[in-house]
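Onboarding guide, step 5: your first structure request.
Type a short instruction followed by the sequence, for example:

Predict the 3D structure of this protein.
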Amino acid sequence: MGANSFESAWAMSDHQAERELQEALRVQDMTPVARWLWLQETWGRLQDSAALLSPNEQPVPGAARCYASLDEKNRFDEDREIRQALQMPIHRASPP
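The system replies with structure tokens like these:
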């Protein structure tokens, strides 16, 4: 499966929102056992992803960000995704 190409951050955000909605609908239709298995698998992926965060982005236990609005949270998420996407090629191209 190839990578998606987006014309803007908004297009990328809309695509992600649609994927999350489809996943939520799929999970709602699961049996309790299937949902439990899905949670185990998802939690494992989240733990693996957290381990890859740079040290200055590691979550601090008990800390949480507060946002004045959903738009502010979405802007924060989009900015973070763009920063991470821009850093990825730089890290891959840098010599060890």
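Each response can be followed by summary notes, for example: The chain is about 65% helix and 0% strand.
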